[in-house]
Please model this.
Amino acid sequence: MPGESRRTPLFFLAPAVAALALIGLYPTVFALVTSFRRYNLTRARDGFPFVGIENYRRVLTDETFWDTLALTGKFFLTVLPVQILLGIAIALLLHRPGWNALRALTRVSLVVPLATTYAVVGLIGRLVFNRDYGVANQFLSWAGIPALDWLGNPTRAFVAISVMDIWQWTPFCALIFLAGLSMVPVEIEESATLETSSRLSMLRHVQLPYLLPGLTSILILRSADVLKLFDMVFVLTRGGPGAATELVSVYIQRVGFRVFDMGTASAQAILLLVLTIVLSRAYIRFVYREIEQ
Model:
């Protein structure tokens, strides 16, 4: 029956749509509603009255919120260029002809950091940067440098979370760029090789246009990921020492689950969602304008 044939796809899509609404849509709507209420769990007996944009006003005038957002931006600008450059370098190496066996082996090994959860990455970081038996200090001892207190120093703690993030996400960038390089027509690369022997010129004029869509995906996904990055930082440093590694998501967790001011924390989360959307739109417009040019 025609009616039954139209209902069959809906029948199979319904569980996925329901799960998406339950996991993604409901928490967003709940956070949006909560952001307009005085939702403090320590004053639950007083109820949760509607306060309009009071929570947003409090967030926008909160110097600590802006400090943690600036620190998050610094973290993003520290790790992303390194991940992109290393990702392009690895992709170009694996794209070279005659490396089929190595390419297959490396692709498999690149998946390992991506399959590691953030909390586990944080635990690995605590082992790597441990003052007494960490791998980082072991390498320094071979160079004759005394052991450093990585997680007890503000600058070195920031370096530690940056290194662990680079380790986890550089393979992702490499795989995205490798997929882009695989889309370059072989005849175009061969013709360009006859015209120039400069690999930099080949990258700039032949391969880069095929990498730009992947670069857009990396920028969008990494921006959203850094703005919500919590697990790895919390396990590795708990935002310390002091507030040296307190990214904006760690600060939101502190406001919501230590101070129990869920209304303000929800307003902060909604503002981050808006910022993520704005950045994503800006990346798309910029990159595709470059492609058109």
